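lol forgot to send this yesterday, sorry. struct tokens for the thing we talked abt
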């Protein structure tokens, strides 16, 4: 077994890969709010090799953006090894194989969750990536299988361990489930016994309490927040507090305004300013969900065309009714599906 040098522990929550969201600005924001490691959104191995527009932009990083895991998707060991050569020349120190994405545009190329239909191929790709990455530097993110009647992970996990994977992240749904039903924590508890590799749990973590419960029930080594982080990056600090035995501080209108202001500043600095402004128009209402006046804010933001106007609207969050936030933020996060 190869031991990763990444933080994988109950009090070291990761930001999960989130296509369209886990870009440099959002990763930096989540790190400031307690994320111990971040994963890029999935990057196409072919896109990297053929230098298709946007592929390399997804890998933009800075010194503070560390430790960083770059996630690749692809369907052929040689292509993945060639893409790894490109990644190794850049910033990320860690790598991840996407074997869980059920999006039609990914699975129709044989990549993502489609690899779960061909365990031998999946293992060969993991081996090729792990060999390029070096010991302790490459993980695999999985769903439970392609279809409910074909669970494959019991057989697959030991093979991935032999292939040199350094950690495993599991979102316990089948590809055919999409995001329906509940993530199956019992399945992860049972898979825990099939591998000695560090196991990271992902699925329906909408609050720090959800994560603490999932850690206890599955005996996973760590968690990654996805929709929960999109709704409120404060969830990282809250889990850390919970793990220290403290009562996490609840979000307040002032803390939501500070979060929105910081994200706007990071997005303007690290992205295309016009695209960043448009993104803020959809992201800030998500942070403010549950606050008094959230609906009006959403409406005003949707027609906001300047940073000055955006910051002025953020000011109004601060004057929302104190204590007007829904307790766990659950409704904010659950409403998000890809
Ligand atoms: C908008 C969105 C984009 C996602 N993009 C990726 C991705 O690029 N790669 C990946 O492996 N998983 C991706 N996922 C799956 C998440 O990383 C995570 O495993 C899943 O959302 C379950 O966690 P949650 O229920 O706590 O949100 C995405 C999920 C969402 C909601």
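and heres what i got for the seq, position by position
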């Amino acid at each position: 077994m190869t031991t990763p040098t990444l933080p994988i522990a109950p009090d070291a929550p990761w930001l999960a890969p989130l296509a369209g969201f886990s870009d440099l600005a959002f990763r930096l924001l989540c790190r400031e709010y307690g994320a111990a490691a971040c994963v890029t959104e999935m990057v196409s191995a072919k896109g990297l090799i053929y230098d298709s527009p946007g592929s390399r932009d997804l890998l933009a990083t800075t010194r503070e953006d560390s430790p960083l895991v770059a996630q690749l998707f692809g369907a052929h060991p040689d292509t993945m090894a060639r893409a790894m050569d490109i990644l190794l020349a850049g910033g990320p120190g860690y790598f991840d194989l996407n074997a869980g994405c059920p999006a039609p545009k990914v699975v129709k190329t044989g990549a993502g969750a489609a690899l779960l239909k061909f365990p031998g191929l999946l293992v060969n790709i993991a081996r090729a990536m792990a060999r390029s990455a070096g010991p302790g530097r490459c993980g695999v993110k999985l769903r439970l299988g392609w279809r409910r009647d074909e669970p494959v992970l019991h057989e697959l996990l030991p093979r991935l361990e032999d292939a040199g994977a350094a950690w495993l992240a599991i979102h316990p749904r089948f590809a055919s489930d999409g995001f329906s039903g509940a993530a199956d924590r019992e399945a992860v508890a049972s898979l825990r016994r099939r591998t000695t590799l560090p196991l990271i749990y992902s699925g329906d973590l909408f609050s720090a309490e959800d994560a603490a419960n999932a850690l206890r029930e599955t005996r996973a080594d760590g968690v990654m927040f996805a929709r929960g982080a999109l709704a409120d990056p404060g969830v990282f600090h809250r889990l850390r507090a919970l793990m220290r035995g403290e009562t996490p501080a609840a979000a307040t209108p002032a803390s939501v305004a500070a979060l929105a202001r910081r994200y706007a500043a990071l997005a303007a600095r690290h992205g295309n300013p016009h695209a960043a402004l448009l993104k803020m128009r959809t992201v800030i209402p998500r942070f403010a969900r549950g606050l008094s006046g959230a609906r009006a804010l959403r409406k005003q933001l949707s027609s906001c065309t300047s940073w000055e106007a955006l910051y002025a609207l953020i000011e109004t969050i601060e004057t929302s009714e104190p204590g007007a936030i829904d307790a766990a933020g659950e409704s904010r996060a659950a409403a998000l599906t890809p």
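The pocket of flavin mononucleotide is lined by residues 16-21, 41-42, 71, 98, 100-101, 141, 171, 202-205, 226-228, 336-338 (CB under 6 Å). anyway ping me if u want another try
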